[in-house]
Specification:
Blueprint: E1 2-4, H1 6-9, E2 15-20, E3 26-29, E4 32-39, E5 42-50, E6 53-67, E7 74-88, H2 93-99, E8 106-107, E9 110-112, H3 113-123, H4 160-170
Antiparallel strand pairs: 1-9, 2-5, 3-4, 4-6, 5-6, 6-7, 8-9
The protein binds zinc ion (2 copies).
Residues 68, 70-71, 73, 130-131, 135 line the site of one zinc ion.
Length: 176
């Protein structure tokens, strides 16, 4: 998905608006690869702000399938796309790379909108993904999803301090 900026770059004050559906079908980051389950056209607004500067605004969202941090059930995560990016068309590709490290989304007057979008999705990645706020997770012993019901495992065995207190109550350890 490329946007040709030459239509807006030649006239100061010119504004071009468009809606385009993103092409991406999955997002990869250090946590894994996640499928896109819903996408709507993203609205783009390009404004010539003068002196070879074009302001790019994007508005939309994308939905991805991501496992819950606690129980690993699939969760549909809606990631908003909402950003404003100022582009200096007078800048050479070298200057731009020096100024914005990974931002190599401009080739001449061709804006790689897909790359810009992808970067934005990674930036807006939620810190915590839960199927519900009070997700109980899975039993670390038998793997039972505790949202669907408790298992018979003794969860307290995992905390040695709790086990020690229990022993006192059960009379297996006598205090001296
Ligand atoms: Zn969960
Ligand atoms: Zn269990």
């Amino acid at each position: 998905m490329f946007i040709n900026l030459s239509g807006v770059s030649n006239t100061e004050g010119k504004v071009v608006e468009m809606a385009m559906e993103p092409e991406l079908t999955e997002v990869k980051n250090r946590m894994g690869t996640f499928s896109v389950v819903e996408k709507k056209p993203v609205r783009w607004k390009l404004s010539n702000t003068g002196c070879d500067h074009v302001c790019v605004e994007a508005e939309g969202f994308i939905c991805l399938m991501v496992p819950c941090d606690r129980c690993l059930d699939d969760v549909t995560v809606k990631i908003p796309v909402h950003f404003t990016q100022e582009l200096n068309l007078a800048q050479s590709a070298e200057d731009r790379q020096e100024a914005l490290d990974e931002a190599d989304y401009l080739e001449g007057y061709q804006l790689d909108a897909e790359k810009l979008l992808y970067h934005e999705i990674l930036m807006n990645w939620p810190a915590k993904i839960l199927c519900k706020p009070d997700c109980k997770g899975i039993c670390r012993k038998c793997g039972q999803n505790l949202n669907e019901g408790m298992c018979d495992c003794d969860q307290q065995e995992y905390d040695p301090r709790m086990a020690a207190i229990k022993d006192i109550f059960n009379g297996t350890v006598k205090e001296v």
